[in-house]
Design a protein that fits this description.
single chain; alpha/beta; Rossmann fold; eight-stranded mixed beta sheet; 16 strands; about 40% helix; globular
Amino acid sequence: MRILTFTSLFPNRMNPDSGIFVFQRIAHLAKRRGNSVEVVAPVPFAPKFLQRTARGSVTLVPITEGIGNLHVHHPRYLLAPKVSMPLHGLLMYAGCLRYVERLHQKYSFDCIDAHYVYPDGQAAVLIGRSLGIPVVVSARGTDIHTFPGFATIRPQIRWTLRHAAGLIAVSDSLRRIMLELEPALPNVQIVGNGVDRSRFFREDRLGARDKLALDSTDKVIVSVAALKHVKGPDLLVRAAALLKKRLPRCKVLLVGSGPDLNSLVRLAKELDCADICQFTGAVPHDQLRTYFSAADVSCLASRNEGWPNVLLESLACGTPVVATSVGAVPELLANPELGIIVEPTPEAICAGLLRALQQAWDPEAISTHAERFTWESVAASVEAVLARAVGLPRF
């Protein structure tokens, strides 16, 4: 198949770890025999005089670039931050249509593979209707958990779901929400994510701690997540304050960046747990293995999730997980030998961490379990959905 992938969350020269899970799925899809893939990853237009600002850094993203085995295009579209949110999908469509038309003339795409129902999925479906190409849209999390709560966006999401030629959800919980939004939807396929075993595997724990200058006798908890409300870092800091009273020789590593950093640092000081909470900032994706390997347990304190890749990455490193019961977590931790599922409260998270730190785990068995979540199998499942959308026989 000749496939156009359309997604705004994708690695680029300025942000090589953005949407790494989307990259993995598409890279493995492109490797499958008979497939060719072009990626359109649009970025908002920004004038050059903003180049040194956070918003203006997109001016340094090239129009085209090679990322791994993929050829990636970055057309620009107009977007006023916050103000344009209800028009985001339409603006993305208007800015990208002509660019995609030229690519279609060159490559004659069989289908469009779009990621995130809004705004990317809406823009892709509009482009597909303009060009007569079927579009498969993948729902991944916020696009279904949060955006339907906005009165101006909910109708656009429902329209996108109705007019897509195929739909993929990364978890059963997302599939159920999609069907609540549009009960008459045809089959919504569940295709989760995989884990990159070339990056995530067991390291020696003491060696990993040496690399990170961690005390070999401390109990170490790692949380890899953006520092924003939906990921629950405040819940983890509050849990850390409770944990300190029971287990003073512990360290909680919050790996990630985000808008809530300053408020979280203040919260840790107010709760007298700043000495055990370490905010590392963002860490390159290929270095996360060391953090997981150094930890006794990893923690996912999210209030909402789609398919949390960090959970699989932790398991691949042989590290058990304490995670809140959201999104695909119950599916991924159905086996109690992999981790502990808790409610999203500081008290429940603290209790789960204490249990995990007192329990004997089998790192080898945990790591082996994660091996079945391969990107190759994910790509095969996605290919089957795309093939049905274009009327090709299912392989």
